[in-house]
Structure formats: structure tokens, C-alpha cells
Design goal:
311 residues; alpha/beta; Rossmann fold; 2 domains; seven-stranded parallel beta sheet; 35% helix; binds NADP nicotinamide-adenine-dinucleotide phosphate
Length: 311
């Protein structure tokens, strides 16, 4: 059995998206925004909360590798004034933004142009500002997951039975890119079954993707992807144990410095491997880096640094 999670110093899960400890809105001095001194192109991840984000560390490591001069910071934006916050950053000279919870859908709505994958996801995690002040939105979450599965974990989705658990923003981002890998069968199960039906109808033609409620699952899957927010509160979606066989891969989009509740549950049921979403995080960042800088960084050393950093 293989687990790709890592342990914490204090024995507590340290999840990628931790609950807010306090509400912080960073106000940036205009001199910082323009960065007159060194003319580095400026980027940021915006969210609320966002100070826990590993994106600055990841993009700075990519930049060192690729000899790109940039500044990258984490900025908490006020949820009631997100669009104004983005416009201020754009006017202040930012070249691009990564967008995290809870702003991916509003970022989609404010974009002047979106990629096909962002349109299907109805969510944007990468914004670029063009010279004529257009806001261009993309979504790199799905390609990030597919690359982690195929390139880092050697998990083939082609001809596999794939189950996506969840129908929120993350599930919307990954469903279409996963479908493009031509699985033998794709099922979307959600606690609220109507949302699974909506998502299945959005991404596939009838008979291509099957929506269901958790208690309708009776057969095992080769790949089970937990795209719910349950791990953030150390819960496991109420799936039947029959969802796995001994060769299954259990993939949790959440990441932590120790195996998540979903990973522990799956490993307890004897799956072949259980992995967390840190690889997806780094791969989606690499795709954003490509969009902004047209360079493809190596992701393995960055993942390894992040893993050692949290041990
Ligand atoms: P979201 O839009 O709020 O959607 C939440 C989903 O989780 C819904 O399908 C919801 O079901 C379900 N859910 C919540 N609590 C549950 C529970 N206790 N049992 C069963 N289902 C539950 O959140 P999101 O943006 O999709 O994020 C989902 C996860 O993906 C989070 O853990 C996030 O950290 C992770 N993520 C990771 C990456 C990465 O790069 N690794 C990127 C994006 C997201 P209902 O519809 O029934 O409410």
C-alpha cells in the first residue's frame, strides 16, 4: 500500500484550505503595487483566507528554475468587493492573478474572455491582464489533476472506471479534463444528487457520464476522486465500502501534512494507493506559469521541497 500524504509536527491535519482564523483584508500601498524599483512582473494569489497558500512558494521556485524575474504574493480580498479588488490590482500593474476559494466563480463572471475549460467549469483560477486591459480567465485545476495522475503517479484513466465524488467548484473544474482521458465509465456522485445530475448534463452527452447519489453506488471503481470539501473538516463522504477494489486508487483533492480522513478510510479498506492533492496543486500552478511566462517548469523538485517543508 502506498500513501503520499505527509505527517504534521503536532499530529493535526494541516489542510490546504484551512478555515479562517480572522478576517484580514490587505491594503497595498500604491508604491508597492507599481514596484518602481525593479520592474519585476507582479503576480498574486487572491482568496479569503489566503495567507496559508503555498502558491507564492511554488511560483517563486518555478521562477528561479526558469530564470524568470517576478514577484508573487498572497493577497486577501474582501469578499464583498472582490471585483473592485481585482480592478485595483490590475490598475496597479499586476500581470496576473491566481484565484482561490471562494472567488473562482465570481472571477469567471468578471472575465472578459474565458478559455473553453473555464467555460465548462464555470470557474476561473487564473487571470491574465492583457495590454488593452482585458481580463482573460482560465481554469488549470483539471489539467493539473490529469498531469498529476498520469505523469507523477502513472495512473491511467483511459479505460478505467472513474468516480468523481462531489459536484462543487473543484468537481466542475476536473470533470471535463478527466472525461477527455477516455475512461471506460465516469460516474459523478454527490451528497445533493441534483447537483451531480446538473454537472453530468453539463459535461457529457446523455449516457456518457452517470450521475448518482452515494447510496446508489454498488460496484467498485479503479479511480475514486474525492472532490468534496469533507476532508476540510476531517470527514469522509458517506460512500459505501463497495466503492473500492484492491487495485483502486483513492485520490483526495485536499492536501495535508498527514493522510486525510478520506485517504485513511480508503487505505483501511485495502486500496492499492491513496494520494492527496498536493501534486495537483503544483501541476495546476505549472500550467498557470505556462500561461503567464510560456515556460514549463519541472514540478517534481518543487513537490519534493513542499513535502519536506511540512514534515
Ligand atoms: P465547494 O464548491 O464548496 O463544493 C463542496 C462539495 O463538497 C459539494 O459537492 C458538497 O456537496 C460536498 N461536501 C461538503 N461537505 C461534505 C460532506 N461532509 N460529505 C459529503 N460531501 C460534502 O468546494 P470546492 O471548491 O469544490 O473544493 C472541494 C475540495 O477540493 C476542497 O477540499 C479543496 O481544498 C479541494 N481543492 C483542491 C485543489 C488542489 O489544487 N489540490 C484545487 C481546488 C480544490 P453538496 O453539493 O451536497 O453540498
Amino acid at each position: 500500500m502506498k500513501s503520499r500524504g505527509v505527517m504534521g509536527h503536532d499530529g493535526c491535519p494541516k489542510l490546504g484550505y484551512s478555515p479562517p482564523r480572522r478576517s484580514v483584508v490587505i491594503r497595498i500601498p500604491m508604491t508597492d503595487l507599481f514596484d518602481f524599483k525593479n520592474h519585476r512582473r507582479r503576480f498574486a494569489v487572491v482568496g479569503h483566507p489566503v495567507m496559508h497558500s503555498k502558491s507564492p512558494q511554488i511560483h517563486e521556485a518555478f521562477a528561479r528554475q526558469c530564470n524568470v524575474s517576478l514577484a508573487y504574493e498572497a493577497i486577501a480580498l474582501d469578499p464583498i468587493a472582490f471585483e473592485q479588488g481585482v480592478r485595483n490590482l490590475q490598475a496597479g500593474g499586476m500581470a496576473g492573478l491566481n484565484v482561490t476559494l471562494p472567488f473562482k466563480e465570481v472571477a469567471f463572471r468578471l472575465s472578459d474572455e474565458v478559455s473553453e475549460r473555464a467555460r465548462i467549469a464555470n470557474a476561473v483560477n487564473t487571470l491574465s491582464f492583457s495590454e488593452n486591459d482585458q481580463v482573460i480567465g482560465d481554469n488549470t485545476d483539471g489539467i493539473g489533476l490529469v498531469r498529476d495522475l498520469q505523469q507523477n503517479l502513472s495512473v491511467s484513466c483511459a479505460d478505467a472506471r472513474v468516480l468523481i465524488v462531489g459536484a462543487g467548484g473543484a468537481a466542475r473544474g476536473i470533470a471535463q479534463p478527466l472525461l477527455q482521458t477516455r475512461p471506460a465509465c465516469m460516474v459523478i456522485a454527490n451528497r445533493t444528487a441534483s447537483r451531480a445530475r446538473e454537472l453530468a448534463a453539463l459535461i457529457g452527452s446523455p449516457g456518457e457520464v452517470y450521475p448518482c447519489a452515494f447510496d446508489e453506488i454498488s460496484d467498485p471503481f479503479d479511480l475514486v476522486i474525492n472532490a468534496t470539501a469533507a476532508s476540510l473538516s476531517s470527514e469522509v463522504p458517506a460512500l459505501p465500502e463497495a466503492v473500492f477494489h484492491s487495485g483502486s486508487t483513492a485520490y483526495d483533492l485536499a492536501y495535508a501534512d498527514q493522510p486525510t480522513a478520506f485517504m485513511r478510510w480508503a487505505l483501511g479498506l485495502g486500496v492499492a494507493q491513496a494520494v492527496d492533492g498536493l501534486g495537483m496543486l503544483v501541476e495546476q500552478a505549472a500550467e498557470s506559469f505556462w500561461i503567464w511566462h510560456r515556460q514549463r517548469p519541472q514540478t517534481a523538485p518543487v513537490m519534493s521541497t513542499l513535502r519536506s517543508g511540512v514534515r
